[in-house]
Design a protein that fits this description.
Number of helices: 17
Radius of gyration: 29 Å
Shape: elongated
Structural class: mainly alpha
Order of helices and strands: HHHHHHHHHHHHHHHHH
Strand content: under 5%
Amino acid sequence: MAIKSKVPIIHLMEKHIHPSKQVNKTRNKIKKNLDALPVSQYSMNEAIAEGRDLFLQSMRKLEECDILHSKVLPGVSAARLTIQLLIEQVDTVKEEIVSIIKLLWPSIIAGDSKYTSCSRREAVFSSFHKARLSPALQDQVQAICSKTTKGHTSSVIQTTITRAFFESLLLRREKVEKAADDDTNLMMDKTEENVLRYACGYVPMALSRQLQRRGAAFHTMVEVLSAMRTTKEQAPTFLSYTTEWISRENRGGLYVVNDKTYLFFRRVEHFVRLNQGTLIYQNQSLKQIVIDSILADRVALSYWSDLCSSLTDNSALELLNMCIKLWVNIRGHSTARQIIEEYRLAELKSKRSKKGIRKELKECQKKE
């Protein structure tokens, strides 16, 4: 690695500001960040193009439901027959499927303005339950059933069909594609993951102590941070290999985070590594770039929204900013020390490679 004569380490980190003075600055950015949250690019036109297949998929899934194979519940045989006819004659109801998608779409996108998965889910299903009671949607579902069964279908069966199709549309739109993390330069080995799990426990511990001193207004945040800690021995999971070092070193005083918290910080570390190398010699804010990257990453947001399900959107985003900024500060100091050490070694090596004055004089005399 080539080391410049003057390493501008100050550009790696922003000037440190005490967390209590950052609250107002963070809150001013919350509205802007909420407006920039990632929204699925799956559109209504794409849903209409796939409407037949999605409807068929939802009916087949409904057909395999255990309740439709019950021999005790009344009306099960009629519901099973209706679903079988819808599967067989799906091509005859394409127009009605398109109309249903158009009526359901406002409910599908009702949660786009929300931040946490809980608030999104609440907005989506609140809108759906209003939509399913509308006469327009009920008429379209009844039309589908009438075309296939040639008779009247009970409202319970219609509601079941509507719900199954709605969930199929919702899952299709919210499908999370695999993140492109196959860059071998960014992947961590077992030792690095153990160190990461050990180090990231400092963030919720430090923030919890800071927020406790600020008063009762931050009590809910403190509870969320406290819930990130694992206090009891957990059953082995697929991430147990990341706790081997902690298990050997812990004597009861370490702040050990749970799996979901660790997965979130692993995503944060991914974006730190992704952007850190290009920003060392540039006057840019690594903190803000990592925050923007996390807000655009649906995987990281799903982890964070699960951790902060008890917080409002504004509070969850405010706490997210605090955690990421503190983590980047920690990583920035360690990276700065590494750069300084590499610079010193390079300077020492260059000094050793230079010949002494006496040796140079002797070589000159020999040449003469």
